[in-house]
Specification:
Two copies of one chain form a homodimer. With 424 residues, chain A is α/β, with parallel strands linked by helices. Chain A folds into two domains: 147 residues, Alpha-Beta Complex (Aspartate Aminotransferase, domain 1), CATH 3.90.1150; 234 residues, 3-Layer(aba) Sandwich (Aspartate Aminotransferase, domain 2), CATH 3.40.640.10. Helices cover 38% and strands 12% of the residues of chain A. Chain A has 13 helices and 13 strands. The first copy, chain A, has a seven-stranded mixed beta sheet, with helices on both faces. The longest helix of chain A has 23 residues. The first copy, chain A, starts with a helix and ends in a 16-residue tail after the last helix. Chains A and B meet through α2, α3, α5, α6 and α10 of A and α2, α3, α5, α6 and α10 of B.
């Protein structure tokens, strides 16, 4: 039977333990919501002060060159690329996940239209995919006269056929934490003549991703979850070199053809001519401040590189989630918590979700009052994210003890935990 | 003949003079580039520290509600709305100008397709409009099977006919500073059965704008020029209430249908249902940090409200640009500078541009070395922006003296001023 002392021992042996020092963690908080908003890195505040007071305040317009603001989307993009199996020049940090998905899914549909039989007009995704992805796909399907088919995870394989144009999946499901095998699914899609678009919102910085190894086609992802880039941080997008090269050759556009994606924006020509490579996926002027914060966040993940990188982070992440599952099932037994996240660690992301027929929202609120921050995802999911960069094994122990107490004392039934805020 | 002493006297009498104290102006700089990147407000650095260290660092995910991050696009949008003749609930601060233009121009085209004869398929704009606007229009014209016609300013009237679908203009031209009469042009477009889309990038915070007074249809604008929101700040968009109401009634979408524009994003439903009103024009998760900086910037312009607001700022702006034109023409005569900006102040924005057959780039570089920051717009325009919030009449005098010296000593011919940087 595991004890709190055992957890302390695990922390003492943890080779990644010192990475916790890279963060400005609030005292008295056990933060299990890094999959919604990553913690503030210790370096960010000073970096933003420098960007604001020196780069903007003192150097003003010259900073577009002098401070490298112009190239920041490519530079931060390439740093993120190191975490997801991208080569340099394939990743761009820019705009939001939704907008980036619009760009890459548009590009994918355009390529399908050029190459494929007219009957290939179906976009397949999961019904439980993160909604914004579905909304963007719904918009593009209508515009391009494709149909969007939403299925359950175990129905995907059956939908990979000669009508499939694009398979659009989020690698790690935001509710369940279930992971798709990117290489296997991509291979199947390609064998059927389709393209893949991957959302890495809950993957980048959370699990080992190898986009080139999987021969994936397009990907997008989020900057403010495991990349710790700050609230509403710029997102990223990735495109396989074979598609970038082809877009270069055939002068293909993505539809958000703003000036930052132009081959020569400062010639101020009146006709669009897409930039070569990944830069054609840029659109408007990027936020130098938001990108600096994202850069600091990405650096916290890259700091694990000399300690084993994403493989080491993944090992610790699984140790944390295994421990959490084991402790909850042992110490909170009989309280109606049903594991939603796969028990099989090979298909589990860096989170653990439990469903509960009643009181999920209130239980999360009661935990928050105790300083244990998880979140609730309607209608019935209690979701706990485990960021290996800053979480300790004792945090897992303490979180479970709080959960046990909230359940055993039925504290969650108190009225104040049952008043819903606008955003949950 | 005006002297530096006269300029000092003008500053002493200037009722807006104390607004300069709202900015962290670098010592020794005369900043005539607020139309490219506005100066850092004095309040911004502390505000961002608070957003970063307290709202994000301490309060983490709870700040989406507690600190009002969720409603910031609407809140800052409404503040901007006060500067452009908008009513509450018509303006949203979000994304980039290019992306916002994509949204509103898409909505305009959708409305035209529903209402108008099939022959109405032309988007008209100016050849010298800011390129990103043209690139976005080019993309949408191709997608929707419209044609984009680019004309000179004096050819616009002739293009307002039964084929015109949307007239898309930037109210103040970025090169020349020439202003379109929004009310007159809009009336003519409406009389011909067309809609208008206005880019206010060089208008908002620079000249008095009355979108509702002009009965305009759609507008977008920039947060980092006269609104002082910081490098790559979120932009804004505005939609007339009659179109918002209609989009509500007919459940019309804009194509970037991300979750923040959904009627109930936290229900996590799989089908898109647009939010009511201006919120349907939101897309992905907004940057709380970038919006806080924009908020501080907009507040500097709103600080003029008790001193006469945009009308008072406009009076000072014209006094500054009139003085600059008069001094340059008097003191730099014979040096080949040709006024590009209208001499008629009723159609002049808050900038003055001169064309010069040779050396424009190098002259601007020589001025920058002296601390006089203007910019060069290829192929031949020297552009000087005059932000009445922080510029003094003595700054105008001193800037002209530097320009005179650069020209009379032919300093600009020195080699170091003729090496082009990547971005000019």
């Amino acid at each position: 039977m595991t004890t709190r002392q055992d957890c302390e021992a695990l922390d003492a042996q943890d080779p990644l333990a010192r990475l916790r020092g890279l963060f400005a963690l609030p005292a008295g908080t056990i933060y299990l919501d890094g999959n919604s908003l990553g913690v503030l890195p210790a370096a960010t505040a000073a970096r933003l002060q420098d960007v604001v007071t020196r780069e903007w305040g003192e150097d003003l317009i010259t900073s577009w060159n002098k401070a490298g603001w112009m190239q920041r989307p490519q530079l931060v993009g390439d740093k993120i690329g190191r975490l997801i199996g991208a080569r340099p020049g394939e990743t761009l940090a820019v705009d939001s996940t939704s907008i980036n998905l619009y760009k890459v899914l548009s590009a994918a549909l355009e390529i399908v239209k050029r190459d494929a039989a007219p009957g290939r007009r179906v976009i397949v995704s999961e019904r439980q995919n993160f909604p914004t992805d579905l909304y963007i796909a719904e918009s593009l399907a209508a515009q391009h006269d494709f149909s969007l088919k939403l299925v359950e995870p175990d129905e995907i394989a059956a939908k990979i056929d000669e009508r499939l144009a694009v398979l659009m999946l989020t690698q790690v499901n935001y509710r369940s934490g279930r992971v798709h095998d990117m290489a296997t699914v991509t291979r199947a899609a390609h064998a059927a003549g389709a393209l893949t678009v991957w959302d890495l919102a809950h993957s980048a910085g959370a699990i080992a991703v190898d986009l080139n190894g999987a021969e994936a086609d397009f990907a997008v992802g989020c900057g403010y979850k495991y990349l710790n880039g700050g609230p509403g941080a710029p997102a990223f997008l990735w495109v396989h070199r074979r598609h970038l090269d082809r877009m270069d050759r055939e002068q293909l556009w993505q539809p958000l053809s703003g000036w930052m994606g132009h081959a020569a924006p400062f010639e101020f020509g009146s006709a669009y001519r897409p930039a070569a490579g990944i830069t054609r996926f840029a659109c408007g002027t990027p936020s130098a401040i938001a990108l600096a914060a994202l850069d600091c966040g990405v650096e916290t993940v890259l700091a694990a590189e000399p300690l084993g990188g994403m493989a080491a982070l993944r090992r610790k992440s699984l140790a944390l989630t295994n421990l959490f599952i084991r402790l909850v099932e042992a110490r909170c037994a009989g309280h109606g918590l049903e594991l939603v996240t796969p028990r099989d660690e090979s298909i589990r992301g860096s989170q653990v979700s439990f469903a509960r027929a009643e009181g999920g929202y209130a239980i999360v609120q009661a935990l928050i009052e105790r300083g244990v921050i998880g979140d609730f995802r309607a209608p019935d999911v209690l979701r706990f994210g485990f960021t290996p960069l800053y979480l300790r094994f004792v945090d897992v122990w303490d979180a479970v003890e709080h959960l046990r107490d909230v359940l055993e004392t039925a504290q969650w039934r108190e009225e104040r935990f049952n008043v819903k805020a606008a955003v949950t």
